[in-house]
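Hi there,

I know you've been waiting on this one. I reran it after we fixed the sequence typo, so this is the corrected version. Both the input and the resulting structure follow.
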Amino acid sequence: MVDPNFFQTIEKATIAEFSDRGSRFIAYAFPVQSIDEFKKVLLQLKKDHPKASHFCFGYRIGADRQTYRVSDAGEPSGSAGRPILGQIDSKELTNVCVIVIRFFGGTLLGIPGLINAYKSSASMALQLTPLVKKPVETLYELEFDYTMVNEVLKIIRRFGCSIHSQEIQLFCRYEIGIQKSNESECIDVLKDISGFSIKQKSDPA
């Protein structure tokens, strides 16, 4: 049963290679936080491998695991993107993309051969990177006077919040991730600080 307070992902990028009848399939597994981040990764790989014939991929993003996409990139429909995403889903991962680059070897593999190649290369890449469990967070924006910094940081550390950005001037602005498992308690403690502003932003993974 999936714990709604946590999600599973990877922390490090990995590369694996699979070959079949002359064709090379190089799979890249990356941790990604957004679609824009994925697009940058894909663009860079296309620059790094200008002679590749296909750039097929699958990704799943978000703690709710609802943002996903697959692409066969010119391969027969259903022969590449779906098998790649299937390997991500088999490990119940999110915030992960796998891009498989194919260098055509001159021999057609047929749909079963392609499915096996893309599935196998994606699986190999994901097996090479440690899986990590992370807390689901809700993003909040905090605004407060500089004199409150130590008090606010003490609460942030106490509840294991992550700091996404900070502006420390006479008036401070922080963006923090509060774990869903103790969200209401943390907010209650923060709201007890006088002259303190807190508002919810969009939920990151």
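Quick highlight: The longest helix spans residues 110-127.

Best,
R. S.
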